[in-house]
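Whiteboard transcription, Tuesday session. T.W. wrote the C-alpha cells on the left side:
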C-alpha cells in the first residue's frame, strides 16, 4: 500500500511520557499495577511501546500531530495546575529539542508544510482543559506564545467556565467562560468542544465567529455516549468551517468495535456533507482500548484502506487524513 498522509487533532502522548511511574488515578487499567504498566510503555517520544512514537511516524508520506497538554484537576499537585502545565510544556519542548532530527514544533500552516517537506513530523500544541491554566484569562496570551492552537475550556471536570459532558451537564458557559472564549479568539486559539456540555456547546456556537473544533469526538447517533456529537452539533461545526476529529477509543465507537465500526462513524458524518469537516483525532495514548486490529498509529492505514475499499476516491481521503485539519492553520 502506498504511504498515506496522517494529520491527527489529538493525542495524550506527552502526558503518558511524563507519567511513567503510574502515579495517577485515571481509569487506566483494573488495578495500580496494570496502570503502571500502561504508562511505563511510553517513556519517550522517539520510540516506545505506547500508541505514538516518531519511528512509527516515519511510515507516513507526511505526518502531523497535535500534542495535548493534559492533567486531571482532581489530582492537582501542591504547587497548582499552572505549575503542572509548565512542567508538561517543558516536557514537550525537551522532546522537540531531543528529537529535532525527526520532529519540528509548528505554529502555522506554512511551518507545517516546511516541516513535512523536510521529512519531519509536524508537532502542534493543544491544551485539554482550561484547569491547566487555572481558567485564568490572563494566561491565554502566554500559552498562545507557546504555540497552543486548540484549547478545551473543560475536560471531564466541571470548572468555572462551564459544565462538561461528564459533570454538571446542564450547565453552559458562564460569563467568565464567555470572556475566556473571546480572549482565546483574540489570541488565535480555536475552541475545542470535545468534553464541553451540550448547553456549553450551543452557547459557544451562538457567540463565536470562528471555526469550531471537536478534536476527538464521534457520532452520538451511532454510539450513544455524551462525549460524542449529535447530528445537529456536527452540522453546526461544519457550518462554521471547523473540523471533527474521529476518535479511535473503543468506548466512543461501539461495543467491541472493529475498524469497520469506526468507518461507519466517518460515513455517517460524510452523509451530512462532511467531506470538508471530518479529520482524524485518535485520542491515542489517552485510551486503553482501540478497535480490533489496531494497536497504535501504525494501524491508521487500515482506516484509509477500509474507506478505499468502499470506493471513496483518493482526493477525498487526502482531505480526511490531511487537508481538512491543515486548512485551519
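and on the right, the sequence the group agreed on:
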Amino acid at each position: 500500500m502506498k504511504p498515506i498522509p496522517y494529520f491527527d487533532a489529538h493525542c495524550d502522548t506527552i502526558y503518558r511520557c511524563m507519567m511513567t511511574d503510574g502515579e495517577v488515578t485515571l481509569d487506566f487499567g483494573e488495578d495500580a499495577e496494570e496502570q503502571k504498566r500502561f504508562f511505563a510503555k511510553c517513556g519517550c517520544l522517539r520510540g516506545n511501546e505506547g500508541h505514538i512514537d516518531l519511528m512509527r511516524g516515519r511510515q507516513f508520506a507526511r505526518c502531523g500531530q497535535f500534542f495535548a497538554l493534559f492533567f486531571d484537576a482532581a489530582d492537582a499537585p501542591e504547587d497548582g495546575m499552572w505549575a503542572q502545565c509548565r512542567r508538561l510544556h517543558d516536557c514537550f519542548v525537551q522532546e522537540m529539542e531531543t528529537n529535532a532530527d525527526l520532529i519540528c514544533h509548528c505554529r502555522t500552516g506554512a511551518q507545517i508544510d516546511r516541516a513535512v517537506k523536510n521529512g519531519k513530523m509536524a508537532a502542534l500544541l493543544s491544551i485539554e482543559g482550561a484547569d491547566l491554566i487555572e481558567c485564568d484569562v490572563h494566561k491565554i496570551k502566554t500559552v498562545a506564545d507557546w504555540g497552543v492552537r486548540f484549547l478545551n475550556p473543560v475536560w471531564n471536570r466541571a470548572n468555572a467556565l462551564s459544565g462538561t459532558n461528564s459533570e454538571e451537564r446542564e450547565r453552559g458557559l458562564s460569563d467568565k467562560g464567555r470572556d475566556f472564549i473571546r480572549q482565546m479568539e483574540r489570541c488565535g486559539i480555536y475552541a475545542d468542544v470535545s468534553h464541553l456540555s451540550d448547553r456549553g456547546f450551543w452557547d459557544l456556537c451562538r457567540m463565536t465567529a470562528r471555526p469550531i473544533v471537536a478534536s476527538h469526538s464521534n457520532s452520538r447517533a451511532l454510539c450513544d455516549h455524551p462525549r460524542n456529537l449529535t447530528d445537529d452539533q456536527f452540522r453546526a461545526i461544519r457550518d462554521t468551517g471547523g473540523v471533527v476529529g474521529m476518535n479511535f477509543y473503543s468506548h466512543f465507537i461501539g461495543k467491541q468495535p472493529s475498524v469497520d465500526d469506526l468507518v461507519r462513524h466517518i460515513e455517517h458524518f460524510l452523509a451530512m456533507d462532511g467531506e470538508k469537516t471530518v479529520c482524524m483525532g485518535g485520542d491515542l495514548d489517552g485510551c486503553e482500548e482501540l478497535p480490533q486490529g489496531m494497536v497504535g498509529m501504525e494501524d491508521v492505514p487500515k482506516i484509509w484502506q477500509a474507506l478505499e475499499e468502499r470506493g471513496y476516491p483518493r482526493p477525498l481521503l487526502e482531505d480526511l487524513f490531511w487537508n481538512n485539519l491543515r486548512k485551519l492553520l
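Someone added at the bottom: The mean pLDDT is 94.
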